[in-house]
């Protein structure tokens, strides 16, 4: 377990309002990476973001030090673009990164503004295709899912090997782990999602049996769909937002 703890904020009327030096982080040189994954993530200790250089993440302490000044460090992760990254919910210093170089790497960050590691603690792959998305499981420690091309792999980081894997008919752009420990009636379910081949995102609705997805319709409308995994024959609710090329 990490010794980093979530900052406690008192309730009104003694609500805490950060000063401008605490609320803003200046001097960021972020990259404009095109990928299915995240471009910024935070744990209780660190903020990570895509830097300008390919294969590099910027690492910034979440808490202010030295009178409100934050030191921006660089984590040289991969030989190609970092496409997605995620912090472990069980260990706030554990960071997983995926890349177009077809590998997944796991890093242990320091507890404070010390030197970031020069090498990964664990490297998985290459998997034969660029890693498009990855996510730690929210309720199972040391379990990580990654999507590369048309294949989704669930890794056991303790054993440093895959637990399971499956190949889909189309490229996978998003993965999500359920917060519930309830069993499912069948090992695998499949249903057509969004009709457009643009990137989509998937998210479990807390500890329920429902999923929410965001994507594009055949008419290029941005849309949100609600899915019930207990009757996964189609979307329970579809809501169109607007028409946009982005």
Automatic annotation (TrEMBL):
**This protein's UniProt keywords:** Actin-binding, Cytoplasm, Repeat, WD repeat
Any one Gene Ontology cellular component term annotated for this protein: cytoplasm
One short Pfam family name for this protein? DUF1899
Record carries keyword Repeat: yes
For this protein, the record's SUPFAM superfamilies field holds: WD40 repeat-like
| A GO molecular function held by the record | actin binding
Q: Which PROSITE patterns match?
A: WD_REPEATS_2 (PS50082), WD_REPEATS_REGION (PS50294)
Instruction: Spans of WD repeats, please give.
Output: 75-109
Question: What residue stretches are annotated with the DUF1899 domain?
Answer: 15-67
State the compartments where it is located.
Answer: Cytoplasm
> In terms of one coarse class, where is the protein primarily found?
cytoplasm
| Summary of the function given for this chain in its UniProt record | F-actin regulator involved in anterograde Golgi to endosome transport: upon ubiquitination via 'Lys-33'-linked ubiquitin chains by the BCR(KLHL20) E3 ubiquitin ligase complex, interacts with EPS15 and localizes to the trans-Golgi network, where it promotes actin polymerization, thereby facilitating post-Golgi trafficking. May play a role in the maintenance of the Golgi apparatus morphology.
What's this protein's family per the entry? Belongs to the WD repeat coronin family.
Protein name, UniProt field: Coronin
């Amino acid at each position: 377990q990490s010794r980093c703890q979530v900052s406690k904020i008192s309730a009104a009327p003694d609500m805490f309002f950060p000063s401008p030096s605490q609320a803003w982080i200046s001097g960021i040189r972020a990259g404009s990476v095109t990928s299915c994954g995240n471009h910024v993530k935070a744990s209780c200790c660190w903020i990570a973001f895509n830097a300008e250089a390919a294969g590099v993440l910027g690492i910034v302490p979440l808490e202010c030090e030295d009178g409100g000044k934050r030191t921006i460090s660089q984590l040289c992760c991969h030989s190609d673009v970092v496409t997605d990254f995620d912090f472990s919910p069980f260990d706030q210093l554990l960071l997983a990164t995926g890349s177009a170089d077809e590998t997944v790497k796991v890093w242990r960050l320091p507890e404070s503004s010390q030197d970031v590691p020069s090498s990964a603690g664990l490297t998985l792959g290459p998997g034969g295709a660029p890693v498009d998305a990855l996510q730690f499981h929210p309720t199972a420690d040391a379990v990580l899912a990654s999507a590369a091309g048309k294949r989704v792999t669930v890794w056991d980081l303790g054993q440093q090997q895959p637990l399971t894997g499956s190949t889909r008919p189309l490229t996978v752009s998003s993965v999500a782990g359920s917060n519930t420990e309830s069993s499912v009636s069948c090992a695998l379910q499949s249903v057509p999602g969004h009709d457009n081949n643009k990137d989509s995102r998937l998210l479990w609705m807390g500890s329920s049996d429902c999923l929410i997805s965001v994507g594009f319709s055949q008419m290029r409308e941005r849309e949100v769909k609600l899915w019930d995994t207990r009757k996964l024959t189609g979307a329970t609710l579809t809501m169109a937002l607007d028409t946009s090329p982005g």
